[in-house]
Design goal:
Elements: E1 4-11, E2 13-17, E3 22-24, E4 29-30, E5 34-38, E6 45-53, E7 60-63, E8 66-68, H1 75-92, E9 105-112, H2 122-137, H3 153-163, E10 174-178, E11 191-195, E12 203-209, H4 219-229, H5 231-254, H6 257-276, H7 287-307, E13 312-316, E14 322-327, H8 328-341, E15 355-360
Parallel strand pairs: 7-9
Antiparallel strand pairs: 1-6, 2-5, 3-4, 5-10, 6-9, 7-8, 10-11, 12-14, 12-15, 13-14
Helix pairs in contact: 1-2, 1-3, 2-3, 5-6
Bound molecules: ligand 2P0.
Ligand 2P0 binds next to helix 4.
Pathway: Isoprenoid biosynthesis; isopentenyl diphosphate biosynthesis via mevalonate pathway; isopentenyl diphosphate from (R)-mevalonate: step 3/3
Protein name: Diphosphomevalonate decarboxylase
Catalytic activity: (R)-5-diphosphomevalonate + ATP = isopentenyl diphosphate + ADP + phosphate + CO2
């Protein structure tokens, strides 16, 4: 008897231009474009196995070994419905002999190798891995380069987006834009690769785990409150992000680290300003986060005076953890400095544990 099962994994992505705000909460359509780097090493990944079987009495999802509720009309159900529709239309309708997997229940098991919901983009890798594993199970994506794929990564990014906005960017490696789109039905709000990882292989991301506890305000509810209450968000959407998207894409194409770093830090700071401009205000950074900003700013000031160039760029998502982008030649120096100023928890003067590991992007 045939077994219908597929396992894929997807990494976390870290945004340089932040997504914060939806214009459609059901279809997950953003208020602005965003751009991220997908991490390429094994530290921060979700791995998902999907299996279809006619004997399964219901569809079940396990997240890190625990059964998750599948809410009726919820995000997961919308992703599954879309993948089933693609399977029906693109495969089963064309070949009457092919098994009708779209009619069978699924068992889906997903594992994160890092803390869930700690501002480390677990929903991004999670929904990207879920989408790609079911797409592989359904024959929508081909792992054999000699066979044409019946769906492109950008098309699958539309499905992952229905699960979690930032997930659409984890369908690609390297440097990835999520285009805001203008259609009310969302078909042009998809991810595209700006450049593959090999384009700028010296770019590294240092992940500084300031606190791996579950975050206080979820991104979903936080950004909704921001859309409802922040005047600064409207300025950001109209007057800031479009020019920044163009400028950072150019910086990436030119491998211009100075411009990349300035834009990335400015956008992280504006995102946190917008969070603060929300009523009631949202605080994601803590004292350790702010100290990391001070250290990187000072490093860049000294480096700029000496060489005319910057050495590092910090960015923070919806939590206190820092990601520091730097190029290969500066990784050792940056790690040494961070560990000197933020010793590991045993001897740390700070209340929060501080762990650091590095990976190339
Ligand atoms: C980003 N974040 O661009 C930004 C920066 C957090 C700060 O994408 O509601 O978990 O599932 O679409 O994708 C977090 O938002 O929110 C996020 P939903 P998501 O990476």
């Amino acid at each position: 008897m045939s077994v219908f099962q597929a396992t894929t994994s997807a990494p976390v992505n870290i945004a340089c231009i932040k997504y914060w705000g939806k214009r459609d909460n059901t279809l997950i359509l953003p208020t602005n474009s965003s751009l991220s780097i997908t991490l390429s090493q094994d530290h921060l990944r979700s791995t998902t196995t999907a299996r279809a079987d006619p004997t399964f009495t219901e569809t079940t999802l396990w997240l890190n070994g625990k059964v998750e509720d599948i809410k009726s009309g919820g995000r997961l159900e919308r992703c599954l419905a879309q993948l089933k529709k693609m399977r029906r239309e693109r495969i089963e309708a064309k070949d009457p002999n092919t098994p009708k997997l779209s009619e069978w229940n699924l068992h889906v098991a997903s594992f994160n190798n890092f803390p869930t919901a700690a501002g480390l983009a677990s929903s991004a890798s999670g929904f990207a891995a879920l989408t790609s594993s079911i797409a592989a199970l359904y024959g929508l994506s081909s792992f054999d380069p000699s066979k044409p794929s019946v769906s492109s990564p950008s098309e699958l990014s539309l499905v992952a987006r229905l699960g979690s906005g930032s997930a659409c960017r984890s369908l690609f490696g390297g440097f990835v834009a999520w285009e805001v789109g203008s259609s009310p039905t969302g078909e042009d709000s998809l991810a595209v690769q700006v450049a593959p990882q090999e384009h700028w292989p010296t770019m590294h991301a240092l992940i500084c785990v300031v606190n791996d506890a579950k975050k206080g305000t979820s991104s979903t509810s936080g950004m909704q409150r921001t859309v409802e209450t922040s005047a600064l968000l409207q300025h950001r959407i109209k007057n800031v992000v479009p020019a920044r998207m163009q400028a950072i894409e150019k910086a990436i194409k030119d491998k211009d680290f100075d411009s990349f770093a300035r834009i990335t830090m400015a956008d992280s700071n504006q995102f946190h300003a917008v969070a603060l401009d929300t009523a009631p205000p949202i605080f994601y950074l803590n004292d350790v986060s702010r100290s990391i900003i001070a250290v990187v700013e000072e490093l860049n000031r000294v480096s700029y005076e000496k060489t005319g160039h910057l050495v590092a760029a910090y960015t923070f998502d919806a939590g206190p953890n820092a990601v520091v982008y730097t190029e290969s030649r500066n990784v050792k120096q940056i790690i040494e400095i961070i560990v000197r100023y933020f010793p590991q928890v045993e001897s740390s003067p700070f209340p929060d544990p501080f762990n650091l590991f590095s990976g190339s992007q």
